[in-house]
């Protein structure tokens, strides 16, 4: 399937943990302000006024320097002079809005001009507020305070949408990717495999006696089995591989950069680990097993992940027909891409 335009920056083994949640509390971080003015006196006045509060002030004496500092530090708030020798405050404003769109920046323009037409032009260029020189220190602090509230709010919303985006692609039970997550990721990886000519294997896995565990010991037992299997997948695949839960007791693993033997070995190892795992329900040791179907992507085939899944599913069906708790490779008409790379670690 086509990955579309949705940016995926998440890792395959997603953990929604404290790190992400910390991102929501933006108030605890030092608040950076970039001050831009070609006049050393005005820069000093701004720095002095801002030093009354807990701000980290960065100072630039030209538009170019401001762009560099901005790119390096990404301050949430910028106070810029209007007239400077290289870039005007208006141009700086436009460039920040155009070039740094991933996060919102609150921009205050500082000007000696009082003509309303010009101020309107400044706000039109993307400034959030303006202040006329000579400014009153307390008014500056009050306006910066407003800017900080708005910038913080933007940061919180941005952090929340990142969390939601991750949650939308995560299986809550196991912490693995869900079907949508794995399809988005795999669609991209498949294009990369075709472009750079590396092997890619899709593996469908299904538990053999899961239903009977659920029926006999209850849903909590079933959940423990799913989590146990997910844990084995996480610890027995490389960070470049991805694992997802795509349905009730159905899992999907995508392995790359390994040849046929490597992929088979890696999956055999997972099968054996799962077989060796003892679950204890109501005082009884319970063993659950899984069947696996592997299909390899060939560079001669179309880059269609669903087609690969169909092949892996057919191999899984064979594994079940041939006695379950086993690994089967799809019978493909063309040999999948082989490489010299060693087995999966
Ligand atoms: Mg100036």
What this model shows, in words?
The protein has two domains: 18-168, Rossmann fold, CATH 3.40.50.2300; 179-329, 2-Layer Sandwich (Alpha-Beta Plaits), CATH 3.30.70.270. The protein is 45% helix and 18% strand. The chain contains eleven helices and twelve strands. Helix 2 (40-50) crosses helix 6, helix 3 packs parallel to helix 4 (89-99) and helix 8 packs across helix 9 (219-235). The two termini are 28 Å apart. The model is unreliable at 1-22 and 333-345 (pLDDT under 50). It binds magnesium ion. The site of magnesium ion has 6 residues, from loops.
Give the topology.
Blueprint: H1 18-22, E1 31-36, H2 40-50, E2 55-60, H3 63-73, E3 77-81, H4 89-99, E4 106-111, H5 116-124, E5 129-132, H6 137-168, H7 179-196, E6 200-207, H8 210-217, H9 219-235, E7 242-245, E8 250-256, H10 260-276, E9 279-281, E10 284-286, E11 290-296, H11 305-321, E12 327-329
Parallel strand pairs: 1-2, 1-3, 3-4, 4-5, 11-12
Antiparallel strand pairs: 6-8, 6-11, 7-8, 9-10
Helix pairs in contact: 2-6, 3-4, 8-9
């Amino acid at each position: 399937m086509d990955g579309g335009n949705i940016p995926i920056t998440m890792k395959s083994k997603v953990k929604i943990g404290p790190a992400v949640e910390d991102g929501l509390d933006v108030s605890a971080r030092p608040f950076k302000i970039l001050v831009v003015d070609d006049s050393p006196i005005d820069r000093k006045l701004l720095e002095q006024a801002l030093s009354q509060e807990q701000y980290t002030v960065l100072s630039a004496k030209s538009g170019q320097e401001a762009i560099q500092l901005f790119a390096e530090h990404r301050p949430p708030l910028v106070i810029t002079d209007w007239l400077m020798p290289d870039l005007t405050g208006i141009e700086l404003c436009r460039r920040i809005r155009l070039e740094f769109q991933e996060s919102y920046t609150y921009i205050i323009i500082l000007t000696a001009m009082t003509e309303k037409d010009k101020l309107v032009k400044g706000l039109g260029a993307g400034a959030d507020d303006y202040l006329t020189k000579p400014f009153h220190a307390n008014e500056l602090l009050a306006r910066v305070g407003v800017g900080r509230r708005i910038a913080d709010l933007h940061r919180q919303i941005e952090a929340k949408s990142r969390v939601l985006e991750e949650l939308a692609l995560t299986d809550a039970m196991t912490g693995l990717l869900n079907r949508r997550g794995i399809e988005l990721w795999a669609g991209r990886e498949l294009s990369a495999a075709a472009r750079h000519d590396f092997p890619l294997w899709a593996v469908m896995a299904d538990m053999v006696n899961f239903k009977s565990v659920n029926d006999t010991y209850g849903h909590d037992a079933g959940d423990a089995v799913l989590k146990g299997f997910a844990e084995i997948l996480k610890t027995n695949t490389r960070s470049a591989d991805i694992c997802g839960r795509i349905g009730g007791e159905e899992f999907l693993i995508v392995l790359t950069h390994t040849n046929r033997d490597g992929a088979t070995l890696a999956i055999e190892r997972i099968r054996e680990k799962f077989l060796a795992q003892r679950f204890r329900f109501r005082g009884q040791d319970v063993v659950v097993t899984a069947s696996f179907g592997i299909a390899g992507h060939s560079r001669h085939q179309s880059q269609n992940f669903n087609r690969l899944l169909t092949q892996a599913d057919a191999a899984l069906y064979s594994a079940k027909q041939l006695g379950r708790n086993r690994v089967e490779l799809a019978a493909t008409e063309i040999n999948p891409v082989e490489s010299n790379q060693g087995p999966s670690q």
